[in-house]
Give the backbone structure.
Amino acid sequence: MRPDVPFSTPPRRGLRIGVAGAGLLGRLMAWTLSRQGHQVSVFDPAPQAMPAHDGHGAAGFTAAGMLSPLAELDTAEPEVAHRGWQSIAHWQAIADELGSRCTQRPHFARNGSLLVAHGSDLGAARRVLQRLEASSTAHAQVQLHALSAERLTQLEPALHGSGGPLHAWWLPGEAHIDTVATMQALHDDAEGVRWHWAQPVQDVAPGQLWLGNPGQTQPLSFDLVCDLRGTGARSATPVRGVRGEVVWLHAPGLTLQRPVRLLHPRHRVYIVPRPGERVLIGASELESEDRSPMSLRSAVELMAAAHSILPELAEARILRLDTNLRPALPDHRPEVHTEPGLLRINGLYRHGWLLAPALIDDALQSLQLGRLPT
Ligand SMILES: Cc1cc2nc3c(=O)[nH]c(=O)nc-3n(C[C@H](O)[C@H](O)[C@H](O)COP(=O)(O)OP(=O)(O)OC[C@H]3O[C@@H](n4cnc5c(N)ncnc54)[C@H](O)[C@@H]3O)c2cc1C
């Protein structure tokens, strides 16, 4: 996938670029291109830049923001882990840059993550760990550090009070990011970008973009069009939505430094800390394009599983039950398509935050449009 561009080729500047989609990919792309001196226009059906959390809009806002190249090897290929490590380096640099220019640096932390299992589930947990170790490659080396109860208490005192003894493994190097704050900062810091809200893009072609306005017969013309519409790009690619649900909690006094995943035969739940004493419990994965509110079953299962490892959550307050669709292609791999005048990226599925910077960086290089910060 890496392009064959001479290292010294200077990036092109001053292009007119149309971006379809103001989700995760669209915002990261617009922010990057605007900094390279291009004239960027972004079109999205959302009424405004910040989400309503109503099941519609960008999946990027709903995402938990786990950047877990190793833990994801349970279901993903080693290439995802390889791209994931590259993306983590980019996110670190992007968060620092946003922090130096915006009023608040979006929260990004690289404290590793924890896998935990109740004693009764050790067999199932071991099978997951074996799969992770079997996926280990030169680019994606899996280092699982089994933790003693004492070491676990040192790392995450909050896990000490769980109902019974927890088995735990530490995955160093993994990270997490505040998705909502980062999406907002990418928008606010994208100087000169023209954001066109309530403007769905009907179709795209090299250098051309059709809006959904009734009666519009002529496309808008650009030097480059980026099709980053996620599940909205069905006219161009066989994308489908895979439903996911997350619970937002306010948990005063709870301190958690890193994401925690429960290895359980049925309930694969993770808990991700967010600034402001909030935590996010995620995520269901349902083969459905239903955007309606969360089901009782999902709410009960997610919260009961999270409570089983963090009993302190009992008094937490439920802030929001959020749902959205992950954009997935039939093979569950991301697609990056470039041709003169057109770039399309889609199918980021459950790894959008883990993959977006690495994929965009590659695409920019192949189009001679510069690089992402690293
Ligand atoms: C519950 C849940 C949890 C997740 N957790 C994680 C996680 O922990 N880590 C991780 O790496 N990933 C996670 N993801 C995945 C990640 O959110 C997605 O892979 C990522 O958001 C995809 O980025 P995107 O820009 O392609 O799509 P989106 O972020 O969905 O953005 C697509 C944009 O296109 C717009 N659009 C739609 N139709 C049109 C149209 N006709 N014209 C113009 N614009 C249009 C939409 O309004 C939207 O703004 C999670 C996803 C979900 C749902």
Q: What stands out?
A: The first strand starts at residue 16 and ends at 20. Confidence is low (pLDDT under 50) at residues 1-7. DSSP finds eight helices and 20 strands in the chain.
